[in-house]
Amino acid sequence: MPSNDRYNLQKNSDLKTLESFKILISNIKSLKDKNWGCPWQKIQSHKSLIPFLLEESNEFIEAIYEKKADNICEELGDLLLQVMLHAEIGHEKKEFELHDVIKNLNKKIINRHPYIFKKKEKVSLEKSQQIWENIKNSEKETPHMEGSISKNLNMKIKNLPPMVGTDKITNVVKEYGFKWESTDQIFEKLEEEINELKEAIKSNNDSEIKNEFGDIYFTLLNLSNFLKINPESALQKTNIKFLDRFSIIEDHAGDNIKKQTPKEFKRLWQIAKQKLAGKIPKSK
After folding, report:
1. pLDDT the model gives residue 280
2. Chain segment 62-72, per-residue pLDDT in tens
3. 240 in Cβ contact with 65 (< 8 Å)
4. Given Cys at both, which of 62, 76, 197, 202 links 212, Cβ 3.0 to 4.6 Å?
5. Local structure of 179: helix, strand or coil
């Protein structure tokens, strides 16, 4: 297809998108209208919408794993709805508007990609990531920051999900040199925490058990940060893997699944692992 035709097609698509976005803005304002709006939508706040944002995010992630384009498209729309509702709440409270959200995003995109928007320069993946991190860190530097590092981190993480809070703590403190040097160090710490949990369990100390379990979890999240692994996506894959294996166990056990002994479950688990690994031919 000639380049001019491609450009015209893209331009027409962009115009249609802008028209649809105008309608969406109008629809959101209608939902939140003080007189004629939706009673449920009118009483929502940033905080009350958090569970729905988490739910929609998880459904979007699930759609990605299922590799169903229609579902991905639909769930993206649901996520966009959450963005639009929060922007309208910001407008109602006279804190910010949708325009500010888009303006700030455009500014961030342009600022963090100087090799695209300031000067045309091809860079490697590694360099692009380093540029992003350097600019991101410089944007967040607060020369007149009040209080200590820990006090400011406490303020930042108090309303965040714990896993996100751990990631933020790890990323901030390592900028000051407090960081792991190798995975061996982390495994050594993990082994230490596991032994402490074992001792807490032996002493039947509920408070210490909870504390030590938290230490193990914190260390594992540090390991995922060090390895640059998203722990939630890794866990999601494991959930799916577990259910795939359990499905094979169900096929083998049939109606007698509740009658299986721990030893038999262990045997069936090994069969499921081998079958999914292709070591045992699937039944025809």
Report:
1. 67
2. 899 888 999 99
3. yes
4. 197
5. coil
User: pLDDT by residue (tens digit) across 236-271?
Assistant: 889 999 999 999 999 999 989 999 999 999 999 999
43 neighbors 87 (Cβ within 8 angstroms)? no
Q: Which helix (H) or strand (E) holds 265?
A: helix 262-276
Q: What is the pLDDT of residue 143?
A: 47
pLDDT in tens, 169-218: 999 899 889 999 999 999 999 999 999 999 999 999 999 999 999 999 99
Single out the residue of 128, 169, 135, 131 nearest to residue 152, CA to CA. 169
> 3-96: which CATH topology?
Helix Hairpins (1.10.287)
**How is the chain split into domains, by residue range?**
3-96, 146-229, 233-276
What beta strand segments (E) does the chain contain? Answer: none
d(CA 87, CA 91): 6
Rounded CA separation 44/281 (Å): 54
User: Does the domain spanning 146-229 belong to CATH 1.10.287.1080?
Assistant: yes
**Structure token pair of residue 230:** 């998203």
Token couple for 82: 């959450």
